[in-house]
Write a structure and sequence with these properties.
Blueprint (H helix, E strand, L loop, with lengths): L13 E10 L2 E9 L5 E9 L5 H18 L4 E5 L3 H9 L6 H13 L4 E5 L7 H10 L6 E4 L12
Helix pairs in contact: 1-3
Organism: Spinacia oleracea (Spinach)
Pfam families: RVT_3
Protein name: RNase H type-1 domain-containing protein
Length: about 160
Amino acid sequence: MGSTTWKPPPTGWWKVNTEAAIAERHVGLGMIVRDNIGDVLMSGGKKLDVAIQVLEEEVRATLFGLRYAYDAGFRQVELETDCLNLVTLLTKKSNENSTSQMVVKDIFVVVNLFEACIFKFPKRLCNMTTYSLAKDSLMFDEVLIWMEECPHRHCSYCR
């Protein structure tokens, strides 16, 4: 099953953690990109003004993280999300009859741009910093991206 501690990617790879948080009719998306020693290279957040299902929140957070990671030049990534249903959809390339499936197809389009992209399922505990960033994103009025830092106070010790 999922890992219980955050693990760095291999040398030459980058780890993209994504997460979503919901509050009433808003969804906060968060993403953090780290290198093989755990240093934050990029982080970001975005608020969506929609009410959607949990799986679709996570799918949109993953698409958000992958798009920005690609745009920043990261080409070999491990994508981690604590949504097991999403990891199953992405690794088995299975289909389901849902609105989430349309966004999953968009993820595959972006994934094909990378040299390599693998999907992993960590326990929620490993993704708490990204979850906190997603929660904070509920207050954002625009997409915010930070290079080589994360605005969340736990980044320095909670990977």
